[in-house]
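Hi R.,

Here's the chain you asked about this morning:
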Amino acid sequence: MRRKHIAWITGLLTAAIGIGCHAQKQTQTTAQSPAAHTLLWRISGKGITKPSYLYGTMHVLCADDVALSDSLKAVIAHCDELYFEINLSDMAGMLSSMKYMRMNDSKRLSDLLKPDEYAKVKDYFAKHASMLPFGMLERFKPMLISGLIEQQGMECQTADGMELMIMKEGRPYRKPVRGLETAEFQAGLFDSIPYELQAKELVSYIDSMDINSKMMRELVELYKRQDLEGIDRLSQKDDNGISGYMDMLLYNRNRKWATALDSLLTKIVAGGGGGGASARCQRRNRVVKKRRAIRLNL
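And the predicted structure, written out as tokens:
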């Protein structure tokens, strides 16, 4: 099965980032070619006295693939604040969010699957080490389990994320860190998708591990090339079952972020992928420009 999961499952409970920036001397030129690849966008418009920035993140990468360009570092240095999907600096909140990852009504994975399907999932975790014991994962919402398996399929010993790198870069400057959403809200999204459907998709995910791993590698390469059009094409591939919920999981959240940007436009905001929020900003009479010199070269 071709799957759309890679575009959003990885990061739904991890934060994308927003960074607020002071105006600074601009020595870089605006890209004229619509095909120019970039993940960093400068936002300007009527009533905006200082530029804001939108950066497209991929929440989980192999550590060797995570790096910040000099251009992005310079932007972070001039920021007012860092905005992520959720506040990554709130460790107490992150730990308390674990309770929202469990299914309601004491549901367990074994309640949702046939015995042979359940055995297949249990066997997978018996053969693949996990940061959490399977006994704990049985209570988790199945799509979160799929996300964990996806991270395990990164084929590297150490995984990292762009958000953590950006937050670390901003730490010496004592940049305030905030969130556009909460972990409770994000975990609650999965309560709107039938647990049975999520469980079936989990089994299908395990059945299609080779295909999914190949798509993940392709996604990482597209991200490293900052090819937003390529990422969008990959995300449009068939995803039976879950595709009907993409408005709730992704597009409606982008729309809310774009609305929130109106009150945060003295900040730079970076989020997963960047393209959706960028398009929404443009429709709200904001000028969103690609920056030719801003290449991450990850």
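Residues 219 and 231 are 6 Å apart (CA to CA).

Let me know if you need anything else.
M.
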